[in-house]
Design brief:
The protein has helices spanning 23-32, 54-59, 73-89, 108-116, 137-150, 166-169, 172-180, 194-204, 211-221, 225-237, 245-251, 260-268, 272-284, 289-307, 324-331, 335-353, 361-374; strands at 2-3, 9-14, 47-49, 65-70, 94-99, 125-131, 155-161, 182-186, 208-209, 242-243. With 382 residues, it is of the alpha/beta class. It has three domains: 2-186, P-loop containing nucleotide triphosphate hydrolases (Rossmann fold, 3-Layer(aba) Sandwich), CATH 3.40.50; 194-251, Helicase, Ruva Protein, domain 3 (Orthogonal Bundle); 260-374, Zinc Finger, Delta Prime, domain 3, CATH 1.20.272.10. The strands form two sheets. Strands 1-2-5-6-7-4-8-3 form an eight-stranded mixed sheet, with helices on both faces. It starts with a strand and ends in an 8-residue tail after the last helix. The model is unreliable at 1-45 (pLDDT under 50).
């Protein structure tokens, strides 16, 4: 047991090779059916919201169930903190946290036993279930649906997990959690919304950014909300309330976070500077060359399928399908020779990456990316 900074009692429970008691309670629950289900309606109606809108929603009342999902750790963590603070103010003084380390073998028995047990410390409790990734497994899916029925005015259930794709969103366990309370969907702001998010967040930190300062901070922290907030707090702690580019450059560390899908998006949009910046970021973060090469190759193949329907290509994948039509229209006038050249050059980069040919794979890949995004040859074909 431990007592958190906010004053609520926290009991951390982990799944350690089934050493915890609770199997008898699980069996009793299994045979008892819905005997312990609460007959009290939810405190508020089912609702889906965002981390930004959550504080206003919490002022209207607490829900018996909270589902927190998304790909952004900062906003997920802040949303969870806001729920805990509101619950603590409402008398939820005890919090038990369970970590589901294995999708098919989580500590579900212990969770059910805890839900059924009377607390010696507080009449109102929070049960937190944290699931790395987004799949609780078959047993977990059933367990979560049953836990929903046990939540009520004195027992709050909060489930935290990663980003849920469209298939996961349609599953019965997600629908059950959604219908029973509040679903906080914490997605990172899109590239076009990131500057506005950053300016708004700067205001919350007491810092006013001019346009040049905003541009610099966007480039240095793009894709990393936690790093962006840290940089804003550094400015605030330094006593800076109005910041220009010079102040930001003096304070900011390079904190960009990229993935290969962002590289593909920049290429398809014809944004050469951004494509090269993302490529440089991937290299600095230690992403393996074959993964980056595969991503660029996939975008090329997807484009070719759009330009020449019916081409016998299998295993083609892109997370940027919505950008393909516009890119195909932009690059169509370049003809087959342009695409054949890119395909050949990517094959050459592959040989370099595998050590079968001399050269620097990253440097060669940068030339291919610039050519692909820019839509024009940079070097004479060998």
């Amino acid at each position: 047991m431990d007592v958190a900074e906010g004053g609520d009692l926290v009991i951390l429970v982990d799944d350690v090779r089934g050493q915890f008691a609770g199997h008898d309670a699980f069996e009793e629950r299994r045979h008892a059916g819905s005997r312990l289900r609460w007959g009290v309606p939810p405190i508020i109606a089912a609702l889906r919201t965002t981390p930004e809108k959550l504080p206003a929603q919490l002022k209207r009342g607490l829900a018996p169930v909270y589902l927190l999902s998304g790909n952004e750790p900062l906003t997920l963590g802040e949303a969870a903190d806001a729920i805990r603070a509101a619950a603590r103010a409402a008398g939820f003084a005890e919090r038990e946290v369970f970590f589901v380390e294995r999708a098919t073998g989580g500590p579900w028995d212990e969770i059910f036993a805890s839900c059924q047990a009377l607390s010696l410390f507080a009449p109102r409790r929070i049960i937190e279930v944290r699931i790395p990734g987004s799949r609780p497994g078959t047993e977990g899916a059933r367990a979560l649906q049953e836990l929903v029925g046990m939540a009520g005015p004195d027992l709050m259930l909060m489930v935290s997990l990663g980003e849920l794709d469209w298939t996961a969103r349609k599953t019965s366990w997600v629908q059950a959690l959604d219908a029973a309370g509040v679903w906080v969907d914490a997605e990172a702001p899109t590239l076009d919304r990131f500057p506005a998010w950053l300016r708004e967040r700067a205001g919350l930190e007491g810092v006013e950014l001019d346009q040049e300062a905003l541009d610099v901070l966007v480039q240095h922290t793009e894709g990393n909300l936690l790093a962006a907030v840290q940089e804003l707090r550094k400015l605030s702690l330094s006593g800076i309330t109005r910041a220009g580019a010079a102040e930001v450059l003096a304070s900011t560390a390079q904190s960009s976070r990229f993935d290969v899908s962002q590289l593909g998006a920049a290429i398809l949009q014809g944004d050469v500077p951004r494509a090269l910046r993302v490529l440089s970021g991937l290299r600095a973060e230690g992403v393996e060359t074959p993964l980056v090469l595969w991503s660029v190759w996939q975008e090329l193949r997807m484009l070719w399928l759009a330009l020449v329907p019916g081409t016998p290509l299998s295993g083609v994948f892109s997370r940027n399908k919505e950008l393909i039509p516009a890119a195909a229209t932009r690059l169509r006038p370049l003809g087959r020779a342009f695409f054949a050249r890119l395909d050949t050059r990517l094959a050459e980069v592959d040989l370099i990456a595998k050590g079968r040919r001399g050269g620097n794979a990253w440097d060669e890949l940068a030339l291919v990316v610039a050519e692909f995004a820019g839509g024009r040859p940079l070097l004479t074909a060998a």
